């Protein structure tokens, strides 16, 4: 009798495991979190509390701090040697000496992940780059990002870290800024840096903003060797506001594929408003406890 009971338990476990696998999106990214932004109901998570490098997702916080400072949007800022990437030695289409308004730099940073634009925004903050980074970390704590750390405004440093759960809070906060919604989802933008090179054409680093199948309110991509390919979005699926966070995707197109799989899974399974008492559902976004360690 005892053996029959044990066998029944084993069969029950595998049957439920198979069902759970079947009823979840096949997300390839190393960490992910999907939640309903209207009621903060967690729909899906995977390694959501692991602290990881976040690459250019950093620029959403850069935008928030810049906008919170209420600095003159039309003020002309000159790209200087201090804005050149000395961490990864990445290139930029904005040569030293380029002159653009603060809002144009913000648009390039959000839409096309222009690193020198983000660096210039931090450098020209009242008190300079050090005060800017301090403001980034203060803002992070204010919105509940207790497992995050920022050391510079571009995302080029792998010491800019957060969890998928924290980044969901950042995306939700970003959606409260009309400028971030507009700039991060713009298809393209042309600028004239005033250096005899004529106009420079930039396009959005997230191809999904150009898709008719998506309605995206906030978008940001990121990439570093240490962070993999990352994507965060505030979007609408099945008529509900949904935040999607995808970190450390292993392939060039995996983050896009993951986003499409999540969207299809939500639409086909109608999980957007379910409140089944699963472990994932009970871990509501705002109740995550701080667990930041020095092991990144």
Explain this structure to me?
This protein has a single domain, classed as Beta-lactamase. The longest helix has 21 residues, at 2-22. Helix content is 35%, strand content 20%. With 296 residues, the protein is an alpha+beta fold. Helix 2 crosses helix 5 (128-142) and helix 3 packs across helix 4.
Task: Set out the fold topology.
Elements: H1 2-22, E1 31-36, E2 41-46, E3 52-53, H2 58-68, E4 76-78, E5 99-101, H3 102-111, H4 115-123, H5 128-142, E6 161-162, H6 164-174, H7 178-184, E7 188-191, E8 200-203, E9 216-224, E10 228-237, E11 240-249, H8 254-269, H9 279-282
Antiparallel strand pairs: 1-2, 1-11, 3-6, 4-5, 7-8, 9-10, 10-11
Helix pairs in contact: 2-5, 3-4
> Uncertain spans, ≥5 residues at pLDDT below 50?
1-22, 274-296
Q: Might you state the CATH topology name?
A: Beta-lactamase
Please state the structural category: alpha+beta
Average pLDDT confidence is 87
Order of adjacent strands in the largest pleated sheet: 2-1-11-10-9
The first-to-last residue Cα distance is 50 Å
Strand content: 15-25%
Number of individual domains: 1
Architecture, CATH level 2?
3-Layer(aba) Sandwich
Helix count equals 9
Give the fraction of residues assigned to helices: 25-40%
- What series of H and E elements makes up the topology? HEEEHEEHHHEHHEEEEEHH
């Amino acid at each position: 009798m005892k053996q029959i009971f044990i066998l029944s338990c084993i069969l029950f476990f595998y049957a439920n495991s198979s069902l759970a696998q079947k009823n979840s999106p096949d997300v390839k990214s190393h960490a992910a979190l999907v939640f309903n932004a209207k009621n903060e109901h967690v729909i899906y998570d995977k390694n959501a509390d692991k602290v990881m490098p976040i690459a250019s997702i950093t620029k959403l916080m850069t935008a928030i701090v810049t906008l919170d400072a209420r600095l003159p949007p039309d003020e002309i800022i000159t790209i200087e040697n201090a804005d050149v990437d000395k961490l990864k030695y990445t290139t930029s289409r904005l040569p030293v000496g380029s002159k653009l308004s603060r809002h144009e730099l913000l648009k390039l940073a959000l839409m096309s992940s222009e690193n020198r634009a983000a660096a210039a925004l931090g450098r020209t903050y009242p008190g300079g780059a050090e005060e800017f980074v301090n403001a980034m970390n203060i803002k992070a704590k204010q919105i509940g990002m207790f497992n995050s750390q920022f050391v510079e405004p571009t995302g080029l440093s792998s010491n800019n870290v957060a969890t998928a759960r924290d980044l969901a809070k950042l995306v939700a906060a970003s959606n409260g800024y009309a400028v971030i919604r507009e700039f991060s989802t713009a298809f393209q933008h042309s600028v004239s840096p005033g250096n005899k090179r004529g106009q420079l054409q930039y396009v959005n680093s997230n191809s999904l903003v150009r898709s008719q199948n998506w309605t995206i309110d906030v978008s940001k991509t990121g990439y570093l060797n240490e962070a993999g390919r990352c994507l965060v979005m505030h979007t609408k699926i099945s008529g509900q506001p949904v935040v999607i966070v995808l970190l450390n995707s292993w392939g060039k197109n995996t983050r896009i594929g993951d986003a499409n799989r999540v969207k299809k899974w939500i639409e086909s399974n109608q999980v957007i408003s379910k409140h089944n008492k699963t472990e994932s559902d009970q871990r509501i976004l705002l109740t995550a406890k701080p667990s930041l360690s020095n092991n990144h």
